[in-house]
Specification:
Length: about 475
């Protein structure tokens, strides 16, 4: 199929002659004249460009706030896009979200207001009465007018959600099919075999999931993407399977979907996911994309390594064993920007084992800004304490080396030793054997090393003096 089909508000769109790597924000403003959606940062940080995406999920529509500035048009097939212009009634009456912003004087200069409206609207459509600070963390107000906006959100989210949009649901169901959508060099397969065939045929293609990283190649680096393969339509990659010993997370599972599943066995991992980015970013970004990207400051990676996760790679179509191989997540990262990925191979899933009974799993993120900031240092700790000594230890850090890396010297200093302040001090000293961090804009090398050592002491305090306050916030 050589056209992208989606709903813009209630109106069908069929795009067969457009650059599929144009951002949704540019499309809305330049092609549709819908200028309520604003460009602020153009990197998925400020929320001024927030729109709502509705997509099919288990026979119903799921409404999600997303950043339109980094989402590419090619990823819209089978979705509905709702902007601030689509909320008012046909008679011009304001939507309850808009009216609440008016009633509580939530708009000052007004530049950010459409984004706030759409974030609250998405939460209200999903019946989400979660922490409003989390709901709005991805929307920045330069006039610092948050209190009236929060009061408006409280009013809206205290009411029951709107009923289902049956007409939109039926149209999107008619767009659901297993054909690959190809437009120029942009390909959006719908099956795992078709995806594998495409990647094998185009080993140098850009593999696109949530575009939270690739989108910046387009908006900040002005790169032209020759061949792009989008994985967001492949249902097999968007599944989480709960097994007896662990969960298998498809490479296309978004952080938003993964967070709830991970929270029960690994609450600290889920808290790290909550701080990876805003709701908008968690609705787009994927764990598989974070792994495949291999960034030394990818927040999920130290957690996966500390938990002993296994990565599953695939090459080519078919179910035979030769099409797949598995390796420990930590072994996937070879050097900065280099992963153990053969041409035509891609990340299919990740197996996250459940923690051992009684294990201490902690993950700590240190960044200049608490929400929505890139880590200076992230430490993940998985320790098993038996018969008075540390029996097993897996410790990993991000931001401390060219790759996310285990602290093997620190582990060796702990294993077999009593869990005491003296043992922790020796292990802290061993941190210098594992890491020689760099100076950059986020932190100096000396700061990073001091913080990494202190995070181990923080773990000791939390496990021996639980009454001590060690957390700024936590969910």
């Amino acid at each position: 199929m050589s056209a992208i089909r989606f709903l813009l508000g209630s109106e069908p769109r069929v795009l067969a002659d457009i650059d599929p790597c144009m951002t949704l924000l540019d499309y809305l403003r330049l092609e549709e004249g819908l200028t309520g959606t604003k460009e602020g940062c153009n990197e998925g940080d400020c929320g001024a460009c927030t729109v709502v995406r509705a997509r099919l999920c288990d026979g119903a529509l799921r409404y999600e706030a997303i950043n339109s500035c980094i989402l590419l048009i090619g990823a819209l097939h089978g979705c509905q896009i709702i902007t601030v212009e689509h909320l008012a009634g046909s008679d011009g009456a304001l939507h309850p979200v808009q009216q609440a912003l008016v009633d509580f004087h939530g708009s000052q200069c007004g530049f950010c207001t459409p984004g706030f409206v759409m974030s609250i609207y998405a939460a209200s459509r999903q019946g989400c009465a979660a922490n409003i600070d989390d709901t709005l963390a991805g929307n920045l107000c330069r006039c610092t007018g948050y209190a009236p906006i929060v009061r408006a959100a409280e009013r809206v989210l205290s009411n029951p959600p709107e009923g289902p949009d049956v007409a939109a649901l039926e149209i999107l169901q008619s767009y659901a099919h297993d054909e690959t959508v190809s437009l120029g060099g942009f390909h959006a397969p719908a099956t795992l075999d078709d995806l594998a065939t495409l990647i094998e045929a185009h080993p140098d293609a850009v593999i696109l999931a949530g575009a939270t990283d690739v989108g910046l190649w387009v908006t900040k680096q002005m790169r032209r993407l020759a061949t792009v393969i989008y994985v967001g339509r492949v249902a097999e990659l968007a599944r989480i399977h709960q097994g007896p010993d662990g969960m298998e997370i498809g490479a296309g599972v978004s952080y938003g979907d993964a967070m709830a599943a991970i929270a029960a066995p690994y609450p600290d991992f889920a808290e790290i996911i909550r701080r990876i980015g805003s709701v908008q970013i968690r609705n787009l970004g994927t764990i598989g994309g974070n792994v495949a990207n291999g960034s030394p400051i990818g927040d999920a990676l130290p957690c996966l390594i500390a938990a002993g996760a296994t990565l599953h790679l695939r090459r080519g179509p078919g179910q035979h064993e030769s099409a797949r191989r598995s390796l420990a997540v930590e072994d996937f990262f070879i050097d900065y920007g280099k992963q153990d990925l053969a041409p035509g191979e891609f990340v299919e899933s990740i197996t996250l084992p459940y923690p051992e009974d009684g294990a201490w799993f902690r993950a700590y993120k240190v960044s200049k800004r608490f929400d929505q900031d890139i880590s200076a240092v992230l430490g993940a700790f998985n320790l098993v304490h038996e018969n008075g000594v540390i029996a097993r230890a897996r410790i990993a850090f991000g931001g401390m080396a060219a790759i996310p890396k285990r602290a093997t010297a620190v582990e060796a200093a702990l294993i077999g030793a009593p869990w005491s302040e003296a043992t922790v001090a020796r292990a802290m000293a061993a941190m210098s054997e594992d890491f020689a961090p760099i100076d950059d804009l986020r932190a100096s090398a000396a700061y990073r090393l001091r913080v990494a050592k202190n995070l181990l002491m923080r773990l000791y305090i939390e496990t021996t003096e639980p009454a001590q306050e060690t957390r700024l916030v936590g969910a």
